[in-house]
Amino acid sequence: KNQKLNLSFFTKREWSNEHITEKKTEAGFVNISSPELTAFDLVYYHKNIGGLNRIISILEDLSEVIKSTTLVIIAKTQKTSTIQRLGYLLDIIGNENLTSSLSAIVKKRKIKLIPLSIPHKDYPGDINEKWKVIINTEIETE
What we know:
The chain has 5 helices and 5 strands, in the order ββαααααβββ. The chain has helices at 35-44, 52-63, 68-75, 80-92, 96-107; strands at 20-25, 28-33, 114-115, 126-128, 133-135. A hairpin with a 2-residue loop joins strand 1 and strand 2 (28-33). The termini are far apart.
């Protein structure tokens, strides 16, 4: 038994099976989300999984396989604040080609100023005008 291991499970009431794929493993088949859906979920649940710095390296890896067209399709079903945060983070790691389509979606919505990090929501910070995000935490990239 590993005393240091902590597993957390998050559930949603509704989701589309369109972005869930079945992978074969040694133990059988497992359903996993697409890289695009995983990126949104990581950002949405960042408070519960240790903060944005814990997910930034995963986003860097995912961004290599994320398809812009799929990202846009999924973004249309996401909260505006999650799109804002993901867009900002993708800009930080240098994936402006993915963020241009997200930026277009955000511009069509009613957008308000949001904190980048929810656990640090009361911390002051500079404002990123493109995403209307208060940079209230330092993001460590490689």
